[in-house]
Design a protein that fits this description.
With 106 residues, the protein is α/β, with parallel strands linked by helices. The chain is 37% helix and 21% strand. The chain has a four-stranded parallel β-sheet with strand order 3-2-1-4, with helices on both faces.
Length: 106
């Protein structure tokens, strides 16, 4: 099975990033990873992410915007596939399963 690296760039969204992480956790399979790239937030984003523990990897990055944070995530990603999730968004159940199945068939 192809593995997926979920990359969540964030900046000062401590009040929202937990929802995004929970939706990613509901979609990942064993071997997948979730990376939260913090674009130098000044709120308590780091603490919110830390509360999720080992399934989620927190990476602090210098402030450079969402694109730069995504690039930091790409450099750290270990999965066969990459899926981007904005920190103010959430995925429906089964989203990664459907995409992974489609890509594995091709």
């Amino acid at each position: 099975m192809l593995t997926v690296s979920v990359i969540i760039p964030t900046y000062n969204r401590a009040h929202l990033v937990g929802r995004a992480i929970r939706s990613a956790l509901a979609n990942v399979e064993p071997g997948d990873e979730i990376l939260v790239i913090d674009d130098a937030s000044t709120d308590n984003t780091a603490a919110v992410v830390a509360a999720f523990g080992a399934p989620v990897r927190y990476i602090a990055a210098p402030h450079g915007g969402a694109g730069a944070a995504r690039n930091v995530g790409l450099a750290a990603a270990r999965g066969d596939l990459v899926a981007f999730l904005d920190s103010d968004d959430e995925w429906l159940p089964g989203k990664l399963r459907l995409q992974r199945s489609f890509l594995e068939q091709r």
